[in-house]
Amino acid sequence: MDGIDEILEAIVTRVPAPQPPADKTLRALVFDSVFDVYRGVVGYVRVVSGTMEANHAIMFMNNNSRYEIKR
What we know:
This protein has one helix and four strands, in the order αββββ. The protein has one helix at residues 4-14; strands at 27-36, 40-49, 57-60, 65-68. It is elongated and about 50 Å long.
């Protein structure tokens, strides 16, 4: 298709990248999870801001469930 490369290049040059949040509140997106028979549920996350460390509690916003980070 003609012009697709030019349109994509225009989008990349004209639309600014999203700015990270100014505060250090933990914001993360769980994009996958698996169950391991030895470790339990293993969640794969993309951390947008803040930090995640072992023995800290996290809360899932969709159902207000709290969990402890093991590793």
